[in-house]
Amino acid sequence: xxxxxxxxxxxxxxxxxxxxxxxxxxxxxxxxxxxxxxxxxxxxxxxxxxxxxxxxxxxxxxxxxxxxxxxxxxxxxxxxxxxxxxxxxxxxxxxxxxxxxxxxxxxxxxxxxxxxxxxxxxxxxxxxxxxxxx
Length: 134
Hints:
Layout: H1 6-25, E1 36-43, E2 49-56, H2 60-72, H3 74-84, E3 92-97, H4 100-117, E4 120-121, E5 128-129
Parallel strand pairs: 2-3
Antiparallel strand pairs: 1-2, 4-5
């Protein structure tokens, strides 16, 4: 199977959908934050391994606890995935905390700070205006 074949993409999408459902509804580990979502999934072309990116809304300790909870429940999650999906091999799951949302928020804040520090331009004349808006 090619790296980005249609079959691999469809399998990844289905695994993402099923993992989201399993983590939300069936895993009852208190370490896993209730605001945990599966962001992306990469299933290897041989369907033996699966890398799962999760996003956690919370602090660093919450992210660490959620990752520990997911890793300890990986066997249960994999067995539930095997029951819900009809696959010859159920991939071994590796969980990774996704930082892209946090990175995006941080970059947006930096852009807003830079824009706030720049002098304002008068839209009609195109000249810079040093005065504060009244």
